Sequence to fold (720 residues):
Amino acid sequence: SYISDALQAVNRVNRYSIDFINDLYIVIANDHKILGNLRPLHKHVPCKQYIEMATARFALVFALFVVGVQQIYGHGKMTDPMNRSSVWRLNRFAKVLVNNEDNQNFCGGYVVQHNENGGNCGPCGDNYVDPVPRNNENGGIYGKGHIVKRYHAGQRVKVVVNLSANHLGFFQFSICELKNNKDVETEECFDKNPLKIVAKSGELVDRHPIFAGQSGDIELELELPKSLKCKRCVLRWHYSAGNNWGFCNLKTFEGRMGCGPQETFRSCADLRRLHAINSDKKMAGIKFVLAAALLVVGFQEIHGHGKLMDPVNRSSAWRKGYKTPPNYTDNENFCGGLGVQNQNGGKCGPCGDNYRDSQPRKNENGGVYGTGTIVKTYQKGQRTSIVVNLSANHMGYFQFAVCPLKGANDIETEECFDKYPVKLANGSDKFPVKSGVNGDFSIDVVLPADLTCEHCTFRWHYRTGNTWGMCENGTGRLGCGPQETFRSCSDITIHSSRHTAEEQRETMAIVELLLASAVLVAGLQEIYGHGMVMDPVNRSSAWKKGFKTPVNYDDSEIYCGGISVQHEQNGGKCGVCGDNYALNRPRPNENGGKYGTGTIVKTYKSGQKFTATVYIDANHLGYFRFSVCPLSSPDELETEECFDKHPLKLADGSDQFRLKAGVTGDVNIDLVLPEGLTCEHCVFRWHWKVANNWGQCGGGREGMGCGPQEHWRTCSDITI
Fold:
């Protein structure tokens, strides 16, 4: 009831324009039992009648106490340019250390910053007492110098900050120039180069206020210094929250929200800045910026890949059972890479090869993969569904075209494809790729109404939109300038009428043969989707949560050794915790193995309902199942029989969780532990059977998800 009264009193402060807080000071100043010898004000101003003295005393003490121990509910981070702790979220950076708590760079927390460190904070948001370089500083575990943006002097640039909860206060931005790769940021360095924020009025200001209710992505425009030149710069976002109540003036005892110590959030991002551009040399500068960007981009790894899967492209036909040469990098038909393509004047082979390769190039008719194998037959003018697989989304758009070949030695040309563009069913000529969508894209297209051919080449063309470049108007943004290009070519036939009965029988025979072959080669498919349990954190990932366990940078690849190892070499068997079945026990992820150190990461109660979190970075459908296995000794090994005895139900009573198409990131599942089961050491297991491979379902049927599939498993050590 006291808390309720105190909160009501605070509500009254908000409702009426009165000096309520001053009244509270006066009440308590006259009650020495509460604050001892605090000197009362010269003139006692009586409390308003609606405030009871007990409530008033408690309201202030309660508020002061809560301020010091409150949890951090609001989090934030700079996402454009991407901050160091979040760089792993950008597909173009491989093997970057993951920080799942990248929105918690808050100086160690309010209490640590102000009660233990005297208000000091690491320049990039780390705990001030951590050894230098701290985690988010240059040279720290996240400060690896990954350049995420390039600007020119004096440029106005867009920045994006993501707030998951609003804590009022204000943003500030600044830049620190690093002299060399070992240089570490300092407050003095950031203080030298504060950045101006472009207000809505056009005025340049030092701070951007955060008003109540603002959350999500907050876009701002900054003006970079015209005089600063640096090869490497660090852009810092500083957020001083304003949701804590404190003293504004200790002499007058004035207090309100936003005064006194506040929570602080910071993010640092690595930039590359060029020399200042004056008006006389603007065009030369633009050309230089573009040339530099092209040079750097050329060395970027391609982490987003794609390919045409229906009609299956030449490099991937072997995956569908055709007797064509296997190409294990069939999702990398990207013109040799952006750097190579730029060296070739922007040119690309008609079917995605390096333009400077000799003809016929590998993916062209007559090349290594262009064997002329017809994979599909259509009718002229037919509306049909095309399937493209993207393992990572790079925005941009798809286009389709066909080129009729006149003979076995005829080679595709750009002019040929330009003659026969394929429209989408809605009449447009481009399919825009929306951000964040991966996996299979099914797109309805309409073939040309007047084209027939015994041998046509069907082409998918993907111009991405994830690279920063210069636009025609002289500004820079994502999607402008040269972009990565992917292409796939498939061999098809287009008839003028339906197949005869004989042709249909032949087609069915071929389909049956292909299905049988597909099951055999399914094991050769690449692994595009990854996953792992992050709560309770699994053994291979426990180090990411601060546990002193062995580091496994491949903790998202605990998939039974891969589909070919599991199904072709091990007869479908998998280690109980996701390792290659053929390995000696204890396998790396089993109790007693390299990562199975017995470190308890969570404690639950028998029969408890709780939420498990699974992280998925690419969705391959299928389902999750969960189970536990109690261990009676430190040397005991998990077994399938043990896990089978203790399956976990979902909160809705079902025994499996269906993964819906398109869902990625953290997947939260409510589970219920078995009633009556207790253990000092239990192993919690997540099992994921995916459903993205084509196979036989039985009864003469076939489809995606049938036949052998990839499996993922992780094990976590818990107490019940």
